[in-house]
Amino acid sequence: MARPGCIMADWSRAFDEPIPLPRGRQLITLKDAANYVQKLPKAEQDLEEWQAAVKPMRKNGDAGSRGRGG
Known about the structure:
The protein contains three helices and two strands; from the N terminus they run ββααα. It has helices at residues 30-39, 42-45, 48-60, and strands at 14-20, 26-29. It has a two-stranded antiparallel sheet with strand order 1-2. The model is unreliable at 63-70 (pLDDT under 50).
C-alpha cells in the first residue's frame, strides 16, 4: 500500500532504451534492473555508481521486497 504523497514505481514499465549488459544481455524494465543489482556481489552493490543508480528505485518502492523473499 502506498504512503500518502508517495509515487509507486511501475516495475514492468520498459525503459526508453534498453540498458546493455555484458554478453549481449539487456535490462528492459525497472524490475530487470532491480533484479540485476540484487544479484551482484555485495562489494559491487556498494560501489558509488550502483548506489546512485538504485537511489531512485528506493524512493519509488522497495526493490528488495521484489526479489529477496519479501
